[in-house]
């Protein structure tokens, strides 16, 4: 369950429990992550380049 | 049992009210809700009448399964000829009104004529009365409901009401119930206003009977578990439809500055997680185990204090990205204003964003807007324009007539910038990277719309085998492709038509959740609730019948293939931003026309989108209008 | 140990599933006015409170019933109406301070929660868990924890201002 689907390459990848950022291992897109449930991560937005 | 349930005919001109049972034959052909409403509209409306004349009819229908403890079964369908488009007017509303109307003894209402003075209807345990509504005229949608409860001296009365926008016959005025629910689209509130009908109230204590109550109850539990186990519903339970924003704004699938950009930069404040600052809890419609609505409080700012419900994903677009406002609080205030006045969120935001682009391009200026500087991102202008539209004041009066009239009044090439189909605004989604979604907004029978046939699961890039299993033939996994996408739209159109006819929530079928109840589960629910037996393919035929009679209505009103057209900008301007998958995309004209051809074939319609003779015969539509009721 | 039907209004989404489930289970029809549970709503302020018989320790309904028709079920602790004895005087309804007893307008009978013989159906369908069927001690601990949470929030605020 603790996977998200990359919004760019549409492949699923797993996210470390509680992490607030994650990068897609396939296309390298970096996302900010939130957790609607403890066992379910969700993409919140992009990690902006300026940061 | 189901075939004992009644339809009431209410003539507001004469005050005459009669009621009859709904024949089983009609149930088998159209189920209920939107299905029976569409049948009635085709059968009872004289072609080519002015939607604002007393000859228009207003239909209110509860779903076939209304009242079951599952899948948000409290939905109500409201229909008429649309004052926005001149085509099918049809809008679906959740909340608690539909079960109350059923408990009051009525499944369908057909309201004709026009009252001399403001009135409201009260349905109560087998009776319907027409009451004076002079004291309610001018009241907002919340006050009106409270005042009706006071009138009837019963806290449990539920009402469908219009606000000042409906009274002023703003073309896209909506019908509302409770704090949150709106039959938003196609101007059904305008039709109520044109009939001097301020509200329809219901209170009932009569039984809703089902054929196999014990088995139905157990099966409903399975249905609720099925939906709440999906990732979609789990996230939606926490943040509502706002969660869509996370995907679309990250990817670049969201209209920004009307149609100039496909992603709002610095749009973090609109992320659903930020609703936690304002939310005091979620709330659910009748019979819903997902509860996707925020109850929120705004304690500060010039419009505070506000207690309200919402916002939806649509609100984020209408009062956020499209007008280039990037503050959640702006959206929360605007959401409250349109709800109070009874305006369709989507149409209001679409028109304001269009006007802002016209202002930027110099097509209109301060002389046209009576001094309003329609600058992007100006929340005060946004609030003022919303208020002006509802009251038909100043420049708001021009927008209040909707795209068709406003385009002809403004002229000067303004049409090119209008993101509308058949005269109705499209959602703030940017469909340039997604051909399937682009097709769906064009073929929608009620004008540009995402709830008529949107294959939202296309965005997941699901495995080919899974798509084949769902849609019954090869469909490309690639959402930027054209192959098989017509089939997705066609299939979703049939599914949503049946969902609206049984009266359950679209979010609890295959809309955004792949593993949600659909044909098999619907078939089983219908059998347990009513003893009517369908196969999956017979149920799909019901969807086809509903969709085709809607098409027949539109053809009779002069619509055809030419009206299933995308705005030119989709073909000419490429998406300037977004993730690589969504950037630099526009719709290919040939690809689009080919999808449309394939789509007509799937429905059994000819090249111009007219149903073929054999299709009409197969669906039993060749003898329409048949006047069964 | 006997369990209690525990209500947490803060979690209630107001969906009224409990009402229709209750009437469907007991009366075999959907009709909230014939349900044994009722969600009291203040819509314009967003407050929803499910109300149902609390199966009191010293039930007034039992005391006022002239026919002695309301008795405790030893297994579940539910106060049950013996309809063979009940004459329909509705005194129980009038005296219950919680409105825990409903009048079925159709049959003229009084209705009250019977805890579904130890498996309350409403609880099974309540997704937000505003209704739970719990041991009394668990409830006490839950309430304490909740109160303690508020206390700790306050402590945090105080410490932050120091
Ligand atoms: Zn990727």
Structure explained in plain terms:
By secondary structure, chain A is mainly beta. Chain A has one domain (2-46). Chain A has no helices and 5 strands. In chain A, strand 3 and strand 4 form a beta hairpin. The radius of gyration of chain A is 10 Å and the shape is globular. In chain A, 25% of the residues are buried. The two termini of chain B are 18 Å apart. Chain B contains 23 helices and 18 strands. In chain B, the strands form 5 sheets. Chain B has a 6-stranded mixed beta sheet with strand order 2-1-6-3-4-5, with helices on both faces. Chain B has a 4-stranded mixed beta sheet with strand order 8-7-12-9. Chain B is globular and about 60 Å long. Chain B is α+β, with helices and mostly antiparallel strands and 629 residues long. In chain B, 38% of the residues lie in helices and 14% in strands. The mean pLDDT of chain B is 97. Chain B folds into 3 domains: 2-203, Aldehyde ferredoxin oxidoreductase, N-terminal domain (Aldehyde Ferredoxin Oxidoreductase,  A, domain 1, 4-Layer Sandwich), CATH 3.60.9; 253-425, Aldehyde Ferredoxin Oxidoreductase Protein, subunit A, domain 2 (Orthogonal Bundle), CATH 1.10.569; 435-619, Aldehyde Ferredoxin Oxidoreductase Protein, subunit A, domain 3, CATH 1.10.599. In chain B, helix 7 packs antiparallel against helix 19 (519-530). Chain C has 5 helices and 9 strands, in the order E-H-E-E-E-H-E-E-H-E-E-H-E-H. The termini of chain C are far apart. Chain C has one domain (3-134): 2-Layer Sandwich (Alpha-Beta Plaits). Chain C is α+β, with helices and mostly antiparallel strands. The mean pLDDT of chain C is 90. In chain C, 39% of the residues are buried. At the B-C interface, helix 4, strand 13, helix 7 and strand 14 of B face helix 1, strand 2 and helix 4 of C. Bound molecules: zinc ion. Zinc ion binds at residues 6, 8-9, 11, 24, 26-27, 29 of chain A.
């Amino acid at each position: 369950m603790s996977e998200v689907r990359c919004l760019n390459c549409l492949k699923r990848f797993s996210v470390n429990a509680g992490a607030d950022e994650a990068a897609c291992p396939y296309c390298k897109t970096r996302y900010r992550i939130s957790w609607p449930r403890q066992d379910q991560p969700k993409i919140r937005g992009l990690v902006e380049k300026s940061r | 049992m189901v075939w004992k349930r009644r339809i009431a005919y209410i003539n507001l001109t004469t005050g005459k009210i009669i009621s009859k049972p709904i024949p089983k034959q009609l149930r088998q052909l159209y189920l209920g809700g939107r299905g029976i409403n569409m049948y009635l509209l085709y059968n009872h409306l004289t072609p080519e009448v002015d939607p604002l004349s007393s000859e228009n009819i207003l239909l209110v229908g509860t779903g076939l399964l209304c009242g079951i403890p599952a899948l948000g079964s409290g939905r109500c369908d409201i229909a008429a000829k649309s004052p926005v488009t001149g085509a099918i007017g049809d809008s679906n509303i959740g909340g608690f009104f539909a079960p109350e109307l059923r408990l009051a003894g009525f499944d369908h209402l057909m309201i004709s004529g026009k009252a001399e003075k403001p009135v409201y209807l009260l349905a109560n345990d087998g009776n319907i009365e027409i009451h004076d509504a002079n004291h309610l005229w001018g009241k907002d949608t919340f006050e009106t409901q409270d005042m009706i409860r006071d009138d009837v001296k019963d806290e449990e009365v539920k009402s469908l009401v219009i606000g000042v926008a409906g009274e002023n016959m703003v073309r896209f005025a909506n019908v509302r119930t409770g704090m949150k629910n709106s039959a938003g689209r196609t101007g059904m509130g305008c039709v109520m206003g044109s009939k001097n009908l301020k509200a329809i109230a219901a209170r009932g204590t009569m039984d809703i009977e089902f054929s196999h109550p014990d088995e139905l109850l157990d099966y409903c539990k399975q249905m609720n578990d099925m939906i709440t186990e999906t990732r979609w519903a789990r996230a939606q339970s926490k943040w509502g439809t706002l969660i869509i924003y996370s995907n679309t704004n990250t990817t670049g699938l969201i209209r920004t500055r009307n149609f100039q950009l496909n992603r709002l930069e610095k749009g973090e404040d609109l992320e659903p997680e930020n609703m936690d600052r304002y939310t005091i809890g979620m709330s659910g419609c009748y019979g819903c185990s997902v509860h996707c609505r925020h109850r929120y409080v705004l304690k500060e700012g010039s419009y505070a204090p506000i207690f309200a419900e919402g916002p939806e994903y649509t609100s984020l677009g209408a009062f956020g990205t499209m007008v280039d406002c990037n503050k959640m609080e702006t959206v929360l205030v605007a959401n409250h204003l349109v709800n109070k006045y009874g305006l369709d969120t989507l149409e209001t935001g679409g028109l304001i964003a269009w006007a802002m682009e016209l202002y930027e391009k110099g097509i209109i200026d301060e002389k046209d807007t009576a001094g309003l500087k329609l600058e992007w991102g100006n929340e005060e202008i946004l609030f003022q324009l919303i208020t002006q539209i509802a009251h038909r004041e100043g420049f708001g009066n021009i927008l209040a007539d909707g795209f068709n009239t406003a385009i002809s009044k403004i002229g000067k090439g303004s049409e090119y910038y209008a993101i509308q189909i058949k005269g109705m605004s499209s959602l703030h989604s940017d469909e340039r990277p997604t051909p399937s979604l682009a097709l769906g907004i064009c073929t929608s029978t009620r004008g540009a719309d995402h709830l008529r046939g949107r294959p939202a699961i296309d965005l997941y890039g699901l495995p080919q085998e899974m798509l084949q299993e769902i849609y019954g033939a090869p469909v490309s996994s690639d959402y930027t492709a054209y192959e098989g996408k017509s089939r997705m739209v066609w299939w979703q159109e049939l599914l949503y038509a049946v969902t609206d006819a049984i009266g359950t929530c679209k979010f609890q079928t295959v809309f955004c959740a792949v593993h949600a109840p659909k044909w098999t589960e619907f078939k089983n629910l219908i059998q347990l609730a009513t003893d009517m037996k369908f196969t999956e393919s017979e149920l799909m035929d019901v969807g086809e019948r509903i969709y085709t009679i809607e098409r027949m209505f539109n053809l009779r009103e002069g619509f055809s293939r030419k009206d299933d057209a995308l705005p030119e900008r989709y073909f000419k301007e490429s998406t300037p931003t977004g993730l690589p998958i969504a950037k630099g995309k526009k719709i290919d004209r040939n690809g689009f026309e080919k999808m449309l051809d394939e789509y007509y074939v799937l429905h059994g319609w000819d090249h111009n989108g007219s149903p073929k003779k054999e299709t009409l015969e197969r669906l039993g539509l060749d003898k329409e209008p048949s006047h069964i009721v | 140990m006997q369990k209690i039907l525990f209500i947490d209004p803060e979690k209630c989404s107001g969906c009224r599933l409990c009402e229709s489930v209750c009437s469907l289970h007991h009366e075999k029809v959907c009709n909230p006015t014939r349900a044994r549970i009722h969600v009291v709503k203040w819509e314009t302020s967003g407050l929803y409170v499910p109300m149902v018989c609390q199966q009191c320790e010293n039930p007034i309904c039992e005391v006022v019933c002239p026919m002695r028709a309301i008795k405790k079920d030893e297994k579940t602790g539910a106060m049950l109406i013996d309809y063979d004895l009940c004459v329909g005087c509705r005194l129980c309804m009038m005296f219950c301070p919680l409105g825990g007893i409903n009048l079925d307008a159709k049959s003229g009978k009084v209705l009250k929660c019977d805890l579904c013989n130890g498996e309350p159906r409403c609880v099974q369908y309540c997704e937000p868990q505003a209704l739970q069927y719990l041991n009394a001690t668990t409830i006490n601990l839950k309430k304490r924890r909740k109160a303690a949470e508020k206390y700790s929030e306050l402590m945090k605020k105080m410490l932050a201002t120091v």
